[in-house]
Design goal:
The complex is a heterodimer of chains A (about 400) and B (about 450). With about 400 residues, chain A is an alpha/beta fold. Chain A contains 16 helices and eight strands. Chain A folds into two domains: about 280 residues, Alpha-Beta Barrel (7-stranded beta/alpha barrel), CATH 3.20.110; about 100 residues. Helices cover about 50% and strands about 10% of the residues of chain A. The chains are: A alpha/beta (about 400), B alpha/beta (about 450).
Chain lengths: ~400, ~450
């Protein structure tokens, strides 16, 4: 049996506007840029993809299933800038063939710095999903598929998730492959769904690469590769950015037509089917324990944290932002709290990455800055102002309290 | 491969990047086994020039004519310090007019083109001409600039004379002062000419170009079989403003020499407290380098941050204006002027600096940022510079955007991880920009020219 499990990541950060150290305004985000990017990607990717998948789901009457992880902040932007995307996701949710996965509302790296914040952001996200789509997520994925045994333990303690999704990195699997369900050590309830990065990347990265010896990739060929899993696996976890469709791979590469035809080709084989992550968890037992003592992610070839935490600027910026969690929460000001959390989005730290900067590559995609240094300067200037706002507010409160008591 | 190279200056007697570039390039060429004969208008005797055969006009005056091909003796630095070169240029200040030179060279070329004379016939003709113009005149030392054109043309005449006694494959001329010499040597010897453009008249003078300089540049760029530009920025200027065909113009980026002496020198922080940060401007104080933008940014920085000094190292025609400007802005006590620095002093000032700023309005390349990075100093450069094409681990800003310039200066002063990351990556990046690469690229261009001939 080969159950194909699609999970699409939907995310857009709140990009900062150009913010010099001389600025005094507490407006940090670039409304215009965020709105125009959101609308552009909606027209190229979210809307056509949603319509296409809705069409396929209806055509197969329950035999084609998919799942999404949609961040809280991209949902905020859809609501504000292109509500029609909201209604197409709503239509997808109502088919009963779509599962929504839990993650941190702000697509943050909070797990690494503050477990209080981490749990608060997961809860905030689950509440929003429940409110919008009437589902309480049962499967969790962390930002950038960052994962370790410690993360599994934290999630297990929340006592409401059945599985975690992460990268099927070679070094954690050893001789095993990602096409089975596994479990973390020291956990009773949780299972692990591991990304089949080879087949996922064939679609996400290599689809339009004319230098690839499998080019062009047809639905037939891909279905054939899935058939081969039969006998050596139970599930094929195809996890990728939703922006693959129409944005990373443009429409003229034939990506939409590929997705349109893939389900029927996969279903031609009697042993194949499509499942959502929860169904995979319910259907298959964990075959083995996968031990991940050190943190992994889905990024780059290193599969580590170096894209967000690889240089002194990144580590400083992250350290600084979590350093004033207490201060922010003391103010009990919802706006300041929201701004502070929006600054935690992993993209801000990704922009500061100097790893591949000189070579220019995937790291430059969607990067609004000319250089990692510019992004760090901008971020630190914003953070400086936010800190000022907090201390100002707190000292105002203090003097109020003082004047009231005197 | 033998190269007859025409230059205008050579370390340590330099006024800008041209001499540094010629030194680095020729040194690398020599290490690649290329033979360079370097012709300069003034004698150079220094340990930095031992890798090339240096020829200067004094060496080809009639009584010494036979010693031309002999390498100069190496003198120690102390001895150089005792040599005054001031009087040398006066020897060149003969009142030959450019028109006379052109007339004469035409005569020689006519002789040659008729091919009725052998080389032996040409040499006497040139000898005769040189003899006429040669007398070491006790000329008054007047404004260098006024006499530049005559000097350029006299240099050309000497170069032709030297060239006839040298054996080489290629003529390589650096900047407009040597272009007439390059054209003349090429015409007389029939060897291919490549002209190297380190800076154009538009960089130096903005839109107020000196027509005569422009004409010389244009003639050189058109006469050469190949043009080497120091950046794509300059290549574009050569194509769009001089009407040179794109296929003829190659880009060869400058390099930087490995900083061998990395030990810390004794600090001499005159007028600077230890807790003060230092932001450095190092370059000629001229319109091209944008010193006024540096001051405007300094004022904005000082409004936010007390503990910082701005050091302006260099001299130039805007020096007084800039000193006055600093005073008028009320930041005179925070801006230090060091005058023109050389050698050890340059190293010392780099070691003190927390940030090097190059706010150039128009910079064909800009070697100084590479030297700053080589000294572990983070760098902020204007986007209007050729060097910004090759450096990624630096801060960049439009020269006119003083607000952003101040923003970035403040960031370096306030956020230590920024300085640290810039320094680490910048130093790593600059180590890849070696003169050997530039020399290798020049060799490729020469070979292409020679096979085509």
């Amino acid at each position: 049996m080969a159950s194909v499990c699609f999970y699409f990541q939907v995310h857009q950060p709140f990009r900062l506007r150009h913010y010099t150290v001389f600025e005094k305004s507490p407006r940090y985000f670039d409304e215009f840029k965020n709105a125009s990017i959101c609308r552009k990607v909606a027209n190229k990717c979210y809307l056509p993809s949603n319509r296409l998948l809705l069409d396929v789901i209806r055509r197969f009457e329950g035999r084609f299933k998919i799942s999404y992880s949609i961040t809280g902040i991209v949902l905020e932007q859809f609501k504000k800038y292109c509500p029609e995307v909201m209604s197409t996701f709503d239509a997808l949710a109502q088919t009963g063939c779509v599962e929504f996965i839990a993650e941190t509302y702000y697509h943050s790296l909070s797990f690494l710095y503050s477990s209080d914040e981490f749990i608060a952001q997961i809860n905030k996200h689950s509440e929003l999903i429940q409110q919008l789509y009437g589902q309480t997520p049962r499967v969790f994925r962390n930002t950038e598929l960052i994962y370790s045994n410690a993360l599994a333990e934290t999630i297990e303690k929340m006592d409401r998730f059945d599985a975690i999704i992460t990268e099927g990195a070679d070094h954690i699997l050893g001789h095993r492959n990602s096409n089975f369900v596994y479990r973390p050590p020291n956990c009773e309830r949780l299972k692990l769904l591991l990304k089949n990065y080879s087949l996922s990347d064939d679609i996400a990265f290599r689809f339009s690469n004319k230098g690839w010896n499998e080019y062009p990739l047809t639905a037939d060929k891909f279905a054939h590769w899935i058939n081969r899993v039969n006998g050596n696996g139970q599930c094929v976890n195809l996890f990728m950015d939703y922006e693959t469709f129409g944005e990373h791979q443009w429409e003229d590469t034939g990506i939409f037509s590929f997705m349109y035809h893939l389900p029927e080709k996969v279903l031609e084989h009697p042993d194949n089917n499509f499942m959502t992550p929860s169904e995979v968890v319910d259907t298959y037992d964990a075959v083995d324990v996968v031990d991940v003592p050190r943190i992994i992610s889905w990024a780059d070839t290193e599969r580590d944290l170096s894209a967000w935490l690889g240089n002194a600027m990144q580590s400083n910026a992250l350290h600084e932002i979590y350093k004033f969690e207490k201060l922010i929460k003391q103010t009990q000001n919802e706006e300041l709290l929201a701004d502070w959390r929006r600054l935690q989005t992993s993209d801000h730290f990704y922009y500061m990455c100097t790893k591949y900067f000189a070579d220019g590559d995937v790291h430059k995609y969607f990067n609004p800055y000319e250089s990692p240094y510019d992004s760090y300067i901008n971020f630190m200037n914003v953070l400086g102002n936010l800190r000022q706002q907090c201390t100002q507010l707190l000292s105002d409160d203090d003097s109020k309290v003082l004047s009231e008591t005197s | 491969m033998k190269i007859f190279m025409l230059g205008w200056e050579f370390p340590p007697f330099i006024s800008g990047g041209l001499g540094t570039a010629c030194h680095g390039l020729t040194k690398a060429m020599s290490s690649l086994g290329m033979h360079v004969t370097f012709v300069v208008p003034k004698p150079v005797e220094t340990d930095s020039s031992t890798h090339v055969k240096m020829l200067s006009p004094l060496q080809c005056q009639p009584p010494k004519a036979s010693s031309v091909s002999k390498s100069r003796e190496i003198l120690t630095e102390e001895e150089i310090a005792n040599v005054s070169f001031r009087h040398i240029p006066s020897a060149l200040k003969a009142y030959t007019t450019p028109e006379y030179y052109e007339h004469k060279i035409e005569d020689i070329l006519t002789l040659r083109s008729r091919q009725t004379v052998t080389e032996e016939g040409v040499i006497p003709a040139i000898e005769e001409w040189l003899h006429e113009t040669d007398p070491i005149m006790p000329a008054k030392i007047d404004d260098y600039g006024d006499d530049m054109y005559s000097e350029v043309h006299r240099y050309a005449a000497y170069a032709v004379r030297l060239a006839l006694k040298e054996d080489f494959d290629i003529i390589h001329a650096h900047d407009w002062m040597t272009y007439p010499a390059g054209i003349a040597v090429a015409a007389v010897t029939g060897k291919p000419l490549v002209v190297h453009i380190h800076s154009t008249e538009f960089d130096r003078s903005g839109e107020h170009v000196n027509q005569m300089v422009y004409d010389i540049e244009r003639r050189g760029l058109h006469a050469a079989q190949k043009v080497i530009a120091v950046s794509h920025l300059t290549r574009n200027v050569v194509i769009s403003r001089y009407g040179v065909l794109g296929e003829k113009v190659e880009v060869v980026y400058n390099g930087v020499e490995q900083n061998g002496d990395n030990r810390m020198l004794a600090f001499n922080r005159v007028g600077i407290r230890n807790d003060e940060k230092i932001v450095l401007f190092l370059g000629r104080i001229t319109m091209q380098k944008g010193p006024e933008y540096f001051l405007m940014a300094a004022r904005k920085v000082l409004a936010e941050e007390e503990n910082v000094k701005f050091v302006v190292a260099g001299s130039g025609d805007m020096m007084h204006q800039i000193i006055e400007m600093a005073a008028q802005m009320g930041i005179g006590h925070k801006v230090l002027f060091t005058g023109f620095l050389r050698g050890k002093d340059v190293q010392k000032v780099y070691e003190m600096a927390d940030l090097y700023v190059m706010p150039s309005v128009s910079e064909p390349f800009g070697i100084a940022p590479l030297e700053a990075l080589n000294h572990d100093v983070p760098v902020l450069i204007s986007k209007q510079s050729g060097v910004s094409e090759v450096l990624t681990h630096v801060l960049k800003v439009d020269f006119w955007d003083v607000n952003e310039m101040a923003n970035k200066i403040l960031a370096v002063l306030r956020y230590p991880p920024l300085q640290m990351t810039l320094r680490e990556h910048g130093n790593f990046e600059v180590r890849r920009l070696r003169w050997e690469g530039a020399a290798e690229k020049c060799r490729g261009i020469y070979q292409e020219m020679l096979t085509r001939v």
